[in-house]
Specification:
Blueprint lengths: L1 H13 L14 E15 L2 E16 L4 E5 L3 E9 L2 E6 L1 H19 L4 E13 L5 E13 L2 E18 L2
Antiparallel strand pairs: 1-2, 1-8, 2-3, 3-4, 4-5, 5-6, 6-7, 7-8
């Protein structure tokens, strides 16, 4: 009986018993995301901002520390975890492809050719004690306009989300 009590106490102290901390839960798998996509552009002190609900994307955390964000776009990279927090490094090729597609769409709609150059990108978030996720991905890009070489700007794309395990 003392041995059982000892092992239960040891498991509790190590955090793997009944009272295991929330970060012991594995977050690998597919998560349905709901959130707000915000795009801010600043060119020659002219600022434009747009914000919209974006609720049809998924985030897949792979077992080998890779991830894929999939919606009307795809972004991939690698992720790591420290306690309740996770962070990811977006794959630069997927970010460049994402921005190139955005520039193509913008050119088709406006006739204006835009050249984005990636400056920074990240994925960060936290696992909540109720088993959901809160997080964001962020891309910051310098933008130039070949027809207007003196007009240089900054594009900031930010998606703040909450996630539930996909059923």
């Amino acid at each position: 009986m003392k041995a059982i009590r000892f092992f239960r106490s040891l498991l509790w102290v190590l955090g793997v018993g009944v009272h295991a901390p929330a970060f012991a839960v594995d977050i690998t798998g597919t998560w349905d995301l709901r959130g707000t996509l915000q795009i801010d552009a600043n060119v020659k002190n002219e600022k434009v901002s747009t914000k919209a609900a974006f609720n049809n994307s998924t985030l897949v955390f792979g077992a080998k520390n890779n991830f894929l964000i999939d919606g009307n776009y795809q972004l991939s990279g690698t992720w790591s975890r420290k306690k309740l927090a996770f962070q990811g490094v977006l794959n630069s090729v997927s970010v460049k492809t994402f921005l190139a597609n955005m520039a193509t769409d913008l050119s088709a709609k406006s006739g204006l050719i835009v050249k984005p150059v990636v400056s920074a990108f990240s994925l960060t978030g936290t696992e909540l004690t109720n088993g959901t996720l809160n997080g964001e991905w962020l891309i910051i890009s310098k933008i130039t306009f070949p027809a207007y070489p003196k007009d240089v700007g900054v594009l900031r794309i930010n998606y703040r989300f909450s996630g539930q395990r996909a059923k």
